[in-house]
Design a protein that fits this description.
By secondary structure, the chain is of the alpha/beta class. It has one domain: Rossmann fold (3-Layer(aba) Sandwich). It contains eight helices and seven strands; from the N terminus they run αβαβαβαβααββααβ. The protein has a seven-stranded mixed sheet with strand order 3-2-1-4-5-7-6, sandwiched between helices. β2, α3 and β3 form a beta-alpha-beta unit. The chain is globular, with a radius of gyration of 17 Å. The two termini are about 20 Å apart. The relative contact order is 0.19. It binds zinc ion.
Length: about 250
């Protein structure tokens, strides 16, 4: 086993922070399903309201939100996601970086995950500001969450005991250092993606499934299994004046 995955294999609770409703499922849905099968408690935190991605321009925001959340629950039930949490920031819009980062810290303090995932904000040519902001804010949240003088929420902070995050993982990465075996769980990821009917046409869903099948095989080309998901797994210590290059 790749030792980068050791922290993930030892984890009992994992938090996956995503910019939009379907990012976790597209980027690591097979990993999520495999972890859930092993009894790992997997939580999703969705940063934005995702309303820009809704196909129907006439659909009212509250109805669109209701449908998006229902679809997310449907997909989550297929994968075995234990909890869905939202920050509700405006999709592709202006929002305060510290509101985002502190919202992530609040959930880290509430849930005490051993491993936290998000999109890789250092993906070359990534242009979507939600992905850049959420990936970076997740990295900073994993660095700073345990500092007791960083006060976030009186209620949460009062019932919180600082803990250590063993590893931070990024998906949608160009520099993976681990590949998770999704040979047995990938069909559930592909099924879950089909839930996002408010955002994706049937044609788009079919295209994503076909594209992902090829990518999963390419990622696993050097492995002993046939299909994988590429991850960049780091120590939270890598996120500040990195004096220990082995943390990367
Ligand atoms: Zn996204």
């Amino acid at each position: 086993m790749n030792d980068r995955l050791a922290a993930l294999h030892a984890a009992r609770r994992v938090l996956c922070v995503q910019p939009h409703y379907d990012d976790n499922d597209l980027g690591m849905g097979g990993t999520v399903a495999a972890l859930a099968d092993r009894g790992v408690e997997v939580h999703y935190l969705t940063a934005t309201d995702d309303l820009v991605g809704v196909l129907d321009p006439e659909l009212a925001d509250d109805e669109a939100t209701r449908r998006l959340r229902a679809e997310q629950h449907e997909a989550g039930a297929i994968l075995g996601v234990a909890g869905q949490h939202w920050l509700g920031l405006p999709d592709a819009g202006p929002y305060d970086y510290y509101a985002l980062r502190n919202g992530i810290i609040r959930h880290i303090r509430m849930l005490s995950p051993e491993v936290v995932f998000s999109v890789d904000p250092w993906l070359p040519f990534e242009a979507h500001s939600d992905h850049l902001r959420v990936g970076r804010a997740t990295a900073e949240a994993c660095l700073l969450h345990k500092h007791v003088r960083l006060r976030i929420d009186p209620e949460v902070d009062a019932g919180w005991t600082p803990h250590s995050i063993a590893a931070v993982g990024f998906y949608f990465t160009s520099e993976p250092n681990a590949c998770f075996d999704v040979t047995a769980s990938r069909t559930r990821k592909h099924e879950a993606i089909g839930a996002y009917r408010t955002q994706l046409t049937e044609q788009e869903i079919a295209g994503l499934r076909a594209g992902l099948s090829g990518i999963e095989q390419r990622w696993a080309a050097a492995e002993t299994f046939s299909h994988g998901e590429a991850l960049r797994i780091l120590s939270p210590g890598a996120f500040h004046v990195n004096l220990l290059p082995e943390l990367l």
